[in-house]
Design goal:
Radius of gyration: 44 Å
Helix content: 25-40%
Largest sheet: 7 strands, mixed
Number of strands: 10
Number of helices: 14
Order of helices and strands: HHEEHEEHEHEEEEHEHHHHHHHH
Number of domains: 3
CATH class of the largest domain: Alpha Beta
Strand order of the largest sheet: 1-10-2-3-9-8-7
């Protein structure tokens, strides 16, 4: 016992030293201030540039939303048809590859709704629609010392924009407040003549839509704009549709509460009924990373767990090794007293001497009952039963009847093996009810049998 206590105390001391060592050596990472220059547009991010507030609002208000943490090619798999709107916000941590872009455009062409919110969107994610394309340019660029959580700095010299026409995306909107870093887009028509005569892979010459007189049903629709260009544009692509918003500030934590920004954000993702998926895979939150490890990343918890596991393995390894001289195996004495009991039981069963079996058990039970009642062994069964009933909850009449049946069986009354087993069972129930323990010899024999 003392040796085990020493081992337990040693393990506790080692664990305590490991915890203290990890706590001392743990260096907390310096918190980097959230800024527009290095914005994090993830729906997991609760900082000024994050979009967690928008996602939580949609989730709690009953919209079907999810965080898409798989590769884009999964959109064409079994999960793809369930997603009706796919949202990409800001410049992602992982860029879209050409293969991923091809898969995404194929999903859109089959009827998906793609929402792109960025100040400098990838041109590959904004494919042309017929002879029409979108050209984007940014008015201003954020500085390093800009406080992203200060709305006054974010919207300095900015005037709220009003919808240019009533559409599904501008319903219930009076004015929207973008940041001063918002991009503007121009809807332009490609000059097919210049494109045909140009043998080089250059950007085709374009002309402003205002100068285009041809009616083209594939032309993008401008919803919100000012003299610098459009802030919100959408257009058809195949059987689907692409919506482009030129400023993530409208849906970010630091700007979604301004004016009607929240209503615009809701309109963007709810214009098509169905599941809305926010791209977290390209924000660096793919499911390839273990969630448990990522949750405790940067803390001493993981090293402590690893060291505890090594300690447990070491203890198990040492417990399986011999530290002393080999000991001989325990020799079991086969001459057990239970062999005699088993032999007698078999003889009584073959000779149908059920009265003898009942007598062996009843004589002991009567002796214990007499001792329990405080009377002589030769006292009448009525007296024994009455005294036992006075000291317990047993019924005196039932106990006296049981004793009488046992004595009649012992004295030669005809009985069967079922009746004998029933009498023995009832005797054992009386012993258990009174809490009468077996004799030391019986206990030893029972232990040897086990």
């Amino acid at each position: 016992m003392r040796q085990r206590l020493t081992i337990v105390l040693t393990i506790v001391v080692i664990l305590g030293l490991l915890v203290i060592l990890n706590t001392i050596t743990y260096v907390k990472e310096q918190k980097v201030n959230d800024s527009e220059f290095t914005a994090n547009r993830s729906t997991y991010h609760a900082g000024p540039t994050g979009t967690r507030a928008f996602y939580d609002f949609l989730s709690e208000s009953g919209h079907k939303v999810m965080r898409w943490r798989e590769a884009t090619e999964k959109l064409l798999g079994s999960s793809g048809p369930k997603v009706k709107t796919f949202v990409v916000i800001g410049r992602t941590q992982l860029p879209f590859t050409s293969e991923e872009t091809t898969v995404l455009l194929r999903w859109i062409g089959e009827g998906g709704h793609f929402v792109l919110i960025d100040r400098d969107p990838e041109t590959s994610l904004m494919p042309r629609s017929g002879n029409w394309m979108i050209a984007s340019h940014q008015l201003d660029f954020p500085q390093f010392d800009l406080n992203a959580n200060d709305q006054k700095q974010m919207t300095e010299t900015v005037t709220a924009l009003k919808p240019v026409q009533p559409t599904l995306l501008t319903q219930q909107i009076e004015e929207v407040m973008p940041s001063r870093f918002a991009a503007r887009m121009k809807v332009v028509a490609m000059n097919s003549v210049s494109a045909e005569h140009s043998g080089e892979h250059k950007l085709p010459s374009v002309e402003i839509v205002e100068n285009e007189t041809e009616n083209n049903l594939a032309a993008p629709v401008v919803h919100i704009s000012d003299r610098d260009g459009a802030l919100l544009v959408d257009y058809a692509y195949g059987a689907g549709r692409i919506t482009v918003l030129g400023d993530p500030y409208v849906v970010a934590n630091n700007g979604i509460s301004s004016h009607d920004n929240l209503q615009l954000a809701i309109n963007l993702v709810s214009s098509v009924d169905g599941l809305v998926a926010f791209d977290e895979y390209h924000q660096g939150k793919g499911i390839t990373q273990n969630e448990f490890a990522s949750y405790f990343a940067g803390t001493p918890v993981l090293p402590i767990v690893a060291q505890v596991i090594l300690l447990i393995l070491f203890v198990l390894w040492t417990r399986a090794r011999r530290f002393a001289r080999p000991l001989p195996l325990v020799q079991v004495d086969r001459r057990s007293s239970l062999e005699f009991v088993a032999s007698m039981s078999e003889l009584q069963e073959r000779s149908r001497a059920f009265d003898l079996a009942v007598e062996n058990i009843y004589s002991r039970t009567r002796r214990v009952l007499s001792r329990y009642a405080g009377v002589d062994y030769n006292s009448s069964r009525s007296e024994v039963a009455a005294r036992v009933a006075m000291r317990s909850t047993l019924d005196a009449h039932g106990l006296e009847t049981l004793m009488r049946q046992c004595e009649e069986t012992i004295n030669g009354a005809p009985t069967s093996w079922r009746q004998a087993i029933d009498l023995v069972r009832r005797l054992r129930e009386v012993e258990r009810a009174l809490g009468l323990r077996m004799r030391s010899r019986d206990a030893r024999q029972a232990a040897e049998k086990i």
